[in-house]
Amino acid sequence: MPGGSLHWPLWTPYKLYGEVDYIYGFPALEAGNGFTSAQGVMNIAESLGYVAYLWLVWRFGHATDEVEGRGAPGSKWVGWLGEARSIGGAEAGLAVLIAFTTSALTFGKTVLYWLNEYFSGFANIGQNDALSLIFLWIIPNGLWMVFPAYMIYVFGQELLEALAIASGESASTASIGKILATKDE
Hints:
Blueprint: H1 12-20, H2 26-31, H3 35-60, E1 62-63, H4 75-78, E2 85-86, H5 89-119, H6 130-166, H7 176-184
């Protein structure tokens, strides 16, 4: 919070966000609203999940030029962070399961956050003009749904493919679209 020992220089932009969204500002703190603290605990769980995924891929994966993962941006966009790594076996299964679950947690928590605003009559963001709301709340918070939704799709496809292969089916039958199209026949 502004005035705290760590506010300058690290958290200076946070002052603006606390004014845009009261759940992260003095109004929620003074009201004793526990949502922000509860969300902070969930943020720690999310962060640990993402770190565990990255550690598994880095520890058990190996660099390869042959395979690029589903949804990978490629090194031309993100440099060495886009290095293709291949991981297999139980470690791969655990990595994908952790990433899928953590992405679902991030997505679900963000939806809950938006629903909390809606059902409270926009108590924490209703003071904003339309432009501030769009650029300082909707877009930044919307990204916390867009990227996790994409990750859920990518890791979900990986899980479906692994289950198809484990059951003796072709991996090509394991797309969400193909499964739904087959069920309609």
